[in-house]
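Q: Structure tokens for this one, please.
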Amino acid sequence: MKEKRRLDRREFMSIATFGIGGLISAIMGIPAIAYILGPVLRKTETEEWIRLGSVSKVELGVPTLFKAKLERQTGWIITEKELSVYILTDNGRDFVAMSNLCTHLGCRVRWIGDQETFFCPCHNASFDQAGEVLDGPPPAPLDRFEVKVEEDQIYVFGG
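A: Here is the predicted structure, written as tokens:
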């Protein structure tokens, strides 16, 4: 039969020190790791409904520019950007939302009421009221957003 070996004081203190050190490391380390990795592992919505403003601001048959500030968090990085959208309606019920960025190089277009066109100053491009290319190098019409109206507020989907 095998005899039990007794721990001497030095071995006991060594085991106790390592045990207490490991326990302290776990107590402090697990929350620290969760704090560091938490934002990276958190799911973020990349697209959502963005409120632009009141329906009453939109004139019939005239594209109206709305601006909204967006804040996005990716991990630890928070970015802010401004979304600019032209809203158009002919009957006050059905709305069309178009980006104000030219599809050629992303320059901002503006509505010229006298000529009833969107004008891009970068390369003299022009778009009609529906956002279709009239002149210049843009390869496609102005981008569109999905629109909904709730309680007299206009929302677009995206960002």
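A few notes: The longest helix spans residues 9-41. The longest strand covers residues 77-89.
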